[in-house]
């Protein structure tokens, strides 16, 4: 039961994060639609399996005994078997609970990509490169052309992360120096006998 619930909820969430990390062109409509699609698919198969449990033939291993096997020269007739089980009961609802997360994940990713293409892709140029990791750079043997194609428009090659950090530290140092200079000037201006215009002291 714990693995079923975790698969029903964790699969679509994994798909949502995968859309954000690997597919920066996915917009908010695609992300929301993909999440709802993944949740719907995983809950559908889980609730259907709870209402219509899988038959014994799909949950137990097959028998290897040949005691009751019918001989080839004997024909037997089997009467029709009536059942109230729907057509999906022996296929879709008989899916193992270990695959609930895979169903939610794949449904979320596929629906998110399709909805994003239908509603207008997110422009990669508008995304801060620090928010998206270029996972395709792990394949070092890829050429720059294929790496840039997999970036989905995110400008990873313009400024590196170190440039951002350096500019941020330089800005921080400039602010700190400005604050210190301002404090020093204010403290000097409050000293009796100090002339701020000539920057000199008088007795």
TrEMBL record:
GO molecular function: lactate transmembrane transporter activity; symporter activity
UniProt KW keywords: Cell membrane, Ion transport, Membrane, Sodium, Sodium transport, Symport, Transmembrane, Transmembrane helix, Transport
GO cellular component: extracellular exosome; plasma membrane
Subcellular location as annotated: Cell membrane
A GO biological-process term: sodium ion transport
Record field: transmembrane: 6-25, 32-52, 97-118
Organism the protein comes from: Neotoma lepida
Record-given protein name: Sodium-coupled monocarboxylate transporter 2
Record has Cell membrane as a keyword: yes
KW Transport (keyword) present: yes
InterPro entries documented for this protein: Na/Glc_symporter_sf (IPR038377), Sodium:Solute_Symporter_SSF (IPR051163)
Membrane topology reported for the UniProt record: Multi-pass membrane protein
């Amino acid at each position: 039961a714990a693995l079923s619930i975790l698969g029903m909820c964790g699969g679509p969430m994994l798909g949502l994060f995968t859309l954000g990390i690997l597919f920066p062109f996915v917009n908010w409509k695609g992300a929301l639609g993909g999440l709802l699609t993944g949740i719907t698919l995983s809950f559908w198969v889980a609730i259907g399996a709870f209402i219509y449990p899988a038959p014994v033939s799909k949950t137990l291993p097959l028998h290897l005994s040949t005691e009751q096997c019918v001989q080839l020269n004997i024909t037997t007739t089997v009467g029709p078997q009536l059942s109230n089980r729907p057509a999906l009961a022996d296929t879709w609802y008989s899916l193992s609970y270990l695959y609930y997360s895979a169903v939610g994940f794949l449904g979320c990713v596929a629906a998110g990509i399709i909805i994003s293409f239908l509603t207008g892709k997110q422009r990669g140029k508008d995304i801060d490169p620090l928010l998206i990791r270029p996972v395709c750079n792990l394949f070092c043997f890829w050429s720059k052309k294929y790496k840039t194609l997999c970036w989905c428009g995110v400008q990873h090659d313009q400024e590196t992360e170190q440039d951002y950090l350096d500019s941020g530290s330089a800005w921080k140092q400039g602010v700190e120096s400005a604050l210190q200079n301002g404090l020093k000037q204010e403290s000097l201006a409050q000293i009796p006998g100090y002339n701020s215009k000539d920057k000199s002291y008088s007795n």
